[in-house]
């Protein structure tokens, strides 16, 4: 096997999805702990704080207890290389979260045992469903009282429409939490509070029949547990690798992230069963991870990570081949060859310069605004990966400048910030307005803050009569021109120069569509 095949086969690239407060950050810390990436839990929060210090606008995130940025953490575990892509977790999350999910091969869903399936989890699951992303589930906070485990499985099955296969099963809960049983291996892992920074190998028994288990649990609890397990195994599904890989079944684990309990069982199972990189679709053909030529796509842009350098980093997911520092690849949007120098990798310990990277890995490419979300890079052959959508924004505001002389900076700032993908920027054909669209209201505050902080522009955002946006496409040039003339008042160009219809009301949109049957009104635009 070539080194590309070997390296690709051992990559496990995933994201954790959860409703805020379910324990995503805590679980991330524990996974990094097992990955040897950090010595002590707490370091992720420490890293967060350190990063906050490097960039002022992040103070806004901190103030609001949100994380607008997301990062990539790589660590080795049991011969595998795990890439964990963080998803932004703020209440007002937007498209950038969705797009991170296009760059992973599987996901891990964290659920709070007391709260069950929450609204954000439902949304995120819908996105995973679009690509049949395989999902594992961790039910967290077992050290607290919560819903009965059987009810939780029912809830996941009925609300999220996915079959559950419990892999571990809790012994008690809250004050009475005694451990978990591994339903596949039969092992019993007992819970010892206060050992949350270490691996808990000393409390593992090979099976329920081990005399040590009866000794620790007592006969009454043990027989209650046996009855329960019988019930569970009758009522639930056994783990089926094919169903999991098809996104039809989710293996379920129970534990307590903060107590580091049940986490290692999850990680061991994850690296064994979670999928390595799969082939991905482009406009011309499917690209397999084991192909020797490099290819990848950009799913996220982050500007000004380092305010001293005003740099921007494009996050590229590698889909095939091998990346080596300084190599050249063709950028599909421009058709030009670009040298990929100064790429960053994201070892959990720190950002560092990479020499090589493989399918499943994410590299960060420094640039000065020449790379956009959705761009593909490839060696030898032009390729354009599909499926990285731009969603029509749901909220619109007009930018208003305090100092009219700063118009140029405002335009530049809005255009650059919209390249990061959280907001979209529109210029009406018939006016000098600058209109910003977003999926959540918080984005407007973030943009106003960053305009001031990074571009020295004092702008506010005011209401504007726009209900929704549709990208316009029409193969018939004459009909398109006609449409343009008749609807000029409602037409704008987006940051990429594409024609967009900004409808003042839904009714107006309906009418416009009826009057122009030859024109397509698209609710998403694939980055092209
Ligand atoms: P996130 O918003 O999903 O990243 O959640 P965090 O990891 O920040 O956790 C939210 C809160 O739940 C924090 O106060 C954690 O300390 C707490 N927490 C996380 N895991 C557990 C757990 O297993 N048990 C209990 N009791 N609390 C937990």
TrEMBL record:
Please provide the record's keywords in A-Z order. Cytoplasm, GTP-binding, Nucleotide-binding, Protein biosynthesis
The places in or outside the cell where this protein is found are: Cytoplasm
Coarse class of the protein's main subcellular location: cytoplasm
Keyword Chloroplast included in the entry's annotation: no
Q: What Pfam family is a match, any one?
A: GTP_EFTU
Which residue range or ranges hold the Tr-type G domain? Answer: 9-278
Q: Which residues bind GTP?
A: 18-25, 86-90, 140-143
Family from the record: Belongs to the TRAFAC class translation factor GTPase superfamily. Classic translation factor GTPase family. PrfC subfamily.
Its job: Increases the formation of ribosomal termination complexes and stimulates activities of RF-1 and RF-2. It binds guanine nucleotides and has strong preference for UGA stop codons. It may interact directly with the ribosome. The stimulation of RF-1 and RF-2 is significantly reduced by GTP and GDP, but not by GMP.
State the NCBIfam families in the record: prfC, PRK00741.1, small_GTP
What protein name does the entry list? Peptide chain release factor 3
Organism encoding this protein: Noviluteimonas lactosilytica
Report which gene this protein is encoded by. prfC
